Amino acid sequence: MTKILGEILYLPLFNLLVLFVWLIPGHSLGWAVIILTILTRLILLPITIHTTKAQVRMKQLQPKIEELRQKYKDDKNLQMQAQMAMYKEEGVSPFGSCLPMIVQLVILIVLYDVFRNGLDTSHFNNLYNFTPRPSAVDTNFFGLNLAVANLWILPIVVALSQLWLGFVTLIPGSDPNDPTTKISKQMIYFAPIMTFIFAREFPAALPLYWLVTNLFTIVQQEYVVKRYSILPQSVSKDVVKMIESKEEEEEKKKDAEQKHNTEQQITKKASVKLNKKTKVTVTVRDKGK
What we know:
Blueprint: H1 2-23, H2 29-43, H3 45-60, H4 62-71, H5 76-90, H6 98-117, E1 140-141, E2 144-145, H7 153-169, H8 179-199, H9 205-228, H10 237-288
Antiparallel strand pairs: 1-2
Helix pairs in contact: 1-2, 1-6, 2-9, 3-6, 3-9, 4-5, 5-10, 7-8, 7-9
């Protein structure tokens, strides 16, 4: 699996990074990292927009979901059927964002290795034959050495961008009592702290990539949320009608079963009475004889 990922993702991205270093005047690693980051984000844009749209729609449906939970709190099966019917009507899937997120995570892990190895010319043996090799790599970027860890400036900037991203990704209209919303609010403050700690441990090229990714995601999130945040008011009539129809069917079924049980009990009682009457008649006749 690792070898396949290396052939499909790592080698092409690593070669692109070195190509950009070679093309940029002065062989600047910083600008090469920025260009490659933007390029990969643009390639992933359809997937990330789809994921963000799915997250926005799921957040927007929380009032409807809560309405159904309250309405059918005594019948979990009917509650689940109502939710699935609502998802179908709204054209969303509760699992629609899982696969795109996995794809993005895999690519991000590969990019981590690309930026880590791209700092060292000893890894140039992984380049394709047609990829030009820069004679040297300029790791200085606005006074920062991207080949070594930066302890304060870049980690602080990246952490602030992570904090900004956290507030942006908190979708308007989210139910404050929803568990996922509570977790998201906690992560707004927890994620920047972890970002700051990790950014101090790696060569500055990785926090630079992280910063550009956050800024790109902020712009993308703002665009998607503003375009698609139309909050639904309540459960649609079609879903309500479907659920009411199922409720009527359940009630009719229960009534039929209850009627059948009552008839069986009446028949059983009548049968018992008839048997007792027959026994009494037979006893009287025997005494008469």
